[in-house]
Amino acid sequence: MTTVLKTEDLRKQFGELTAVDDVSIEIDDSEITSIIGPNGAGKTTFYNLLTGVLRPTSGSIWLRDDGEGGLADITDAEPHEVAQAGLSRSYQITNIFEGLTVRENVRVARISHEGTRLDFRSRAAGDEALEVDIEELLELTGLTDIADTPCDTLSHGEKRTVEIALALAIEPDVFLMDEPTAGMNPTEVTEIVSLIRELDADLDATFVVTEHNMDVVTDISDRIVVLAEGAILADGTPEDVLTDDRVTEAYLGSDSV
Ligand SMILES: Nc1ncnc2c1ncn2[C@@H]1O[C@H](COP(=O)(O)OP(=O)(O)OP(=O)(O)O)[C@@H](O)[C@H]1O
């Protein structure tokens, strides 16, 4: 068990409103952790803090540092620096190039990741390896059969899977999945859940999921963290958390799950 991501007293104020209220959490690499909570609980703000999209009012964020074997402080990192440090997030289709095929999208994501690491000459030498990486990624995410399909003709579920492939193209240590089943039909939900399981088994990446579909949360999580009014209300196994009266109350007190 190794901590891959940690926050210490992480806080975000919007004026008088405390959206994230001194959250301290350690994410372990051996577990799929779901972060759930009623509407307005602070999940999106928490993700935005982790990925450098928002600056915290106070507190700190730490990510596993491969070079040092410890944790690196990424509190002040910009989004691209956070991604480069190994924290990837699925962006709900918004970063797919609709006019390109699935393979071309994966290639662009992969090259832009490589491009931040390698100079031009070593990148050219690595072209063959790049193509192998792309095919592996397509295979891993079950996209090989539709690799040559333009993305603007894909179903919603297929686009969400492409988005997962793009997030994985940066070889993350930690993968934040933002409502992976949102907008999906029941068949697509079943498929994406088994894909998440397979990826978790096949990859070194640690999965952290926010999700409104409670069946999915129960199904894939080893650990559930419940946020309510910006603070951690409950933290434990699905059995413990989903039978916790305080969690039921928090959800009943909101207009929706
Ligand atoms: N940019 C902002 N300026 C002011 N208030 C904000 C801003 N972003 C979020 N909030 C407020 O912070 C609180 C937490 O919002 P957030 O979107 O993080 O919750 P959430 O758990 O992701 O909700 P949902 O499940 O509905 O997406 C809410 O009260 C929201 O209105």
TrEMBL record:
The lineage of its organism: Archaea, Methanobacteriati, Methanobacteriota, Stenosarchaea group, Halobacteria. This is Probable branched-chain amino acid transport ATP-binding protein LivG. Probable component of a branched-chain amino-acid transport system. One of its GO terms (cellular component) is plasma membrane. Belongs to the ABC transporter superfamily. InterPro entries: AAA+_ATPase, ABC_AA/LPS_Transport, ABC_transporter-like_ATP-bd, BCA_ABC_TP_C, P-loop_NTPase. Pfam families: ABC_tran (PF00005), BCA_ABC_TP_C (PF12399). One of its GO terms (molecular function) is ATP hydrolysis activity. Keywords: Amino-acid transport, ATP-binding, Nucleotide-binding, Transport. GO terms for biological process: amino acid transport. Transmembrane segments: none annotated. The keyword ATP-binding applies. The keyword Transcription regulation does not apply. Residues 5-254 form the ABC transporter domain.
